[in-house]
Amino acid sequence: MSCQSVQVIHGVSELLQESAFTLYLAEFKRHEAALFITEAQLIRLLKVSLDWRFVFVAVEGDKVIGLAGYQSKSGSFTGAATPFQLMKCLGVRTFFSLSRSPMAGYRKAQCQELLHDGLIVSEGYRRQGVAAQLLSALGEYAENQGFMKMRLDVEGQNMGAIALYQKMGYQACQKKANGHWVYRRHFDTRNQWEGMSSEQ
Q1: pLDDT higher at 100 or 64
Q2: CA pair distance 42, 36, nearest whole angstrom
Q3: How far apart are the first and last CA of the chain?
Q4: How far is residue 158's CA from residue 133's CA, in Å, rounded to a whole number?
Q5: Distance between alpha carbon 72 and the CA centroid of its chain, in Å?
Q6: What is the pLDDT of residues 41-87, one digit of tens each?
Q7: What is the 3-state secondary structure (H, E, C) of 23-55?
Q8: Which of 26, 29, 101, 164 has the highest CB neighbour count under 10 A?
Q9: Over the stretch 148-159, which tens digit does the pLDDT of each residue have?
Q10: Measuring CA to CA, which residue among 117, 26, 28 is closest to residue 79?
Q11: What are the tens digits of pLDDT across the range 110-129?
């Protein structure tokens, strides 16, 4: 595959939704939270939760090979469902079991901040520049929309992702109790230097 044949698009058209959904479902199944629910429940959960307006997708031909979701004050890629809708599709017991899992950590975008809401690249396309293309598109969008910074969480042992984020201008700023690191990328260099001096 050549990265030149990959097109990055903001939002997902109806024609690409099935391909994007399949990619996201396959990745979600690998997470601990998926152990709490059946595949049918997981499909229902994702169908009510995903908002295709808040995502960039990497497309080759008619296949979605990567996606980068985001959250801002106007909405979230993974936050389309209300708690009632989630409870209805999962059942009360499963809903409360899931809400106590590490995957359920609630994150909210701050003022003038674009929060990453998942970065996935199909297994056969990894380490070929697709993630970098998605991050570049997300960064360009954030800067053009007037966001001051971008924020993401990454597992501390995910060295490949951390190296990519650092290459793309993100800096570690906080280690969380669950072992994840918070990384930020600032668009206003004055804020970037202030943040670094207060953390040292």
Answers
A1: 64
A2: 9
A3: 43
A4: 19
A5: 12
A6: 888 888 888 999 999 999 999 999 999 999 988 888 988 776 777 77
A7: HHHHHHCCCHHHHHCCHHHHHHHHHHHCCCCCE
A8: 164
A9: 999 988 888 888
A10: 117
A11: 778 899 988 999 999 999 99
C-beta atoms surrounding 156 within 10 Å: 13
Residue 9's SS3 state is strand
Token pair listed for 164: 């990519």
**What are the C-alpha distances in Å from 120 to residues 9, 89, 188?**
15, 25, 27
The C-alpha angle 99, 103, 105, rounded to 5 degrees, equals 70
Q: Which residue has the tokens 């909405």?
A: 75
Helix-, strand-, coil-residue percentages of the chain, each rounded to 5: 45, 25, 30
Which structure tokens are listed for 49? Answer: 């939760």
Separation between Cα atoms, residue 150 and residue 135, nearest integer Å? 10
CB within 8 A of 174, min separation 6: which ones? 181, 182, 199
Q: Residue 158 carries which DSSP code?
A: -
